[in-house]
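so my prof wants the structure for this chain in the tokens format not the other one, which i didnt know existed until like an hour ago. anyway here's the sequence
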Amino acid sequence: MDSARGKIEGQINSLQSFGTLDGPGIRYVVFMQGCPLKCVFCHNAGAIDLKGGKKVTLDKLMEKIDKCIPYLKQGGITVSGGEPTLQWRFVKEFLSACGQRGLHTALDTCLFTKKDVLVNLIPEVDLFLVSVKHMDAEKHFGLTGRDNKLILENIRYAASKKPVWLRYVLIEGITDSEEDLLDLIGFAKKLEKLELIELLSFSSMGVEKQREFKGFKITKTKDLKAPSLKKVLWAKKLLEENGFKVVV
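here's what i got, hopefully its the right format
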């Protein structure tokens, strides 16, 4: 790696050297700092402010990765956040360096970003893990503070180029109705390289974490509840009946 490239810096929230929930196999997970969404169920509110975290050079990060390569060969690297596309230049160089070492690369993202950013990142990404908050634009705005038009457009584009796993959070009475799931199914059926859908149950842990960060506005969270196991299994069956591989 040339000296100039190795000295570029990324704002990192945290590192996880033995992740098993963010892509196939054992993953080294890099949580980037900064996110343009403010999801009411965010489980990592400390990663939202781009000014937080710690600056790390690419060289220093790769030193950590190199020590773990023996057990990452059957898994790989996942860049998460926050929202990693906010620091796409650093993320691109990092994923490229990992790819050159023969490591599988995954990007855990909401894809709320400009199309040209996505185009720049795609060559370095082996798998996209994309969180779909809600298919309905108004409800999506209520949950995240952002419209979902750009996100859905980017998911379609990413899925035309690289494998995609969709992640969908089930919240009782908000994202788990039959209409909600049928809207998701209609969208997902048109994704060319979709491999699976991961159903996640809402957890109040994220809401409690938000209270630790001054200025993070919590709205309508008192009514957020996890769905029953029966509802989760119903949603899983509905998706499977429509031809999808589903993980819960």
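also thought this was worth mentioning. The chain has one domain: 3-247.
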